[in-house]
Amino acid sequence: MSDREWILLNPGPANTSREVREALVTPDLCHREPEFFEVMRDCRERLVRLAEGGHGFAAVLFTGSGTAAVEAAVCSALPADGGLLVVDNGVYGDRLLRIARAHGIPTRALSYDVTTAARPDDVRAALRAEPQLTHVAVVHHETTTGVLNPVAEIVRAAAAEGRRVLVDAMSSLFGEPLDVRQDGIDFVMASANKCLQGVPGISFVLARRSALDALRGRPPRSVYLDLANHYVTQEQDNTPFTPAVQVLHAMRQALKELEKEGVRERIARYAENARVLRRGMTALGFEILVPEGARSSVLTTFKLQPGIAYDPLHDAMKRRGYIIYAGQGDIRKYAFRVSNMGTLTPAVMHGVVEAFASSLAELRAAGAGR
Q: Do 247 and 297 sit in the same domain of this protein?
């Protein structure tokens, strides 16, 4: 079964094209040769171009999961006398808090229920109450439940108070509309294996060059995750450490494919994927956990039906070639997640719904859903 091709309904790593996977099989290459630096520079330039960052932005690459880029941005962006307001309505908002606290950065959490989108007025009030908070960090798409936070409005509120914003766009960049150039945004963090449709191993920070330049000379809180050091060396076609050479080749292919499809077209495909999925699943009797106005177009959390437990449902779907995703923490007991990122199409999502219908029938017939 190891060579079976699964339909991945988890929020990354997502299904990729054959060409992306084949790009991994490249001749062995030293990471300090010009042939590699050409690949790295190409990836950085394509990222900025596709994100519509313009000349005022740069992409800084890290070998590591998405959390590496998030931690690099947080621990590098905050000055010694700075403080961070963290919008927390899920696992990844909580991770932002844990990262900041691990580096001794003063934090204030603005907490919500995991199905509730953040409110810009709350951000404004918190910043007015605590002038020592110099930055705001917010997760654009919180994959704990599929909540989409109103980033544009939050950034506007922060910018009006003279604060700078870090946006964790891990599972939204190239999958949901996001204006990275909006006044107030300094850093946007994402990775290759989500809506970019590359393979795991590379994460990146899209950053305003003025914000990157302001980091120079500041004592780093981390050696490996020092954003300023990576930026300076990558601008010189160099790297401080050994990057994932093969993964960057795959990332370049994924970027070429995104350029060919078009960012707006990919966002529209994901939205149609979600529409097909949600319409089909509600017809099967599934309820969506997140209220309609707060949902992303990338992931949906469905409530488990009475008498159907997650593990048997997961296994029934897996037998049909589909990998669904458990809820995180206590949510696992009453809900599960279905993502529709990656190379999936509306036709594939019709197949997903049919597989759920078949799985439900099987579990009810066997009485094995408990």
A: no
Contact 336, 310 (CB under 8 A): yes
pLDDT one-digit tens code per residue, 38-89: 999 999 999 999 999 999 999 999 999 999 999 999 999 999 999 999 999 9
Query: Position 208: which residue type?
Result: R
Alpha helices in 51-199 (DSSP H): 66-77, 91-102, 120-129, 151-160
Distance CA 306, CA 258 (A): 41
Q: Torsion-angle region of residue 339: left (phi > 0), alpha (psi -120 to 50) or beta?
A: beta
On whether residue 221 sits in a domain, the answer given is yes
Percentage of the chain beyond pLDDT 90 is 97
Distance, CA of 16 to CA of 342 (rounded, Å): 6
**75 and 62 Cβ atoms separated by less than 8 Å:** no
Whether 1 maps to a domain, the answer reads no
pLDDT tens track for 334-352: 999 999 999 999 999 999 9
Alpha helices in the chain (DSSP H): 18-22, 34-50, 66-77, 91-102, 120-129, 151-160, 209-213, 227-235, 245-261, 263-283, 310-319, 346-366
Dist CA 293 CA 290 (whole Å): 8
CB count within 10 Å of CB 212 equals 23
Domain that includes residue 357, residue range? 7-12+262-366
| pLDDT band (50, 70, 90) for residue 4 | confident
Q: How far, CA to CA in Å, does 53 sit from each of 125, 155, 167?
A: 30, 16, 14
133: Cα within 13 Å, side-chain hemisphere: 25
Question: Any idea what the CATH number is for the domain that residue 337 is in?
Answer: 3.90.1150.10
Q: Is 225 exposed, middle or buried (0-12, 13-18, 19+ CB in 10 A)?
A: buried
pTM of the model: 0.97
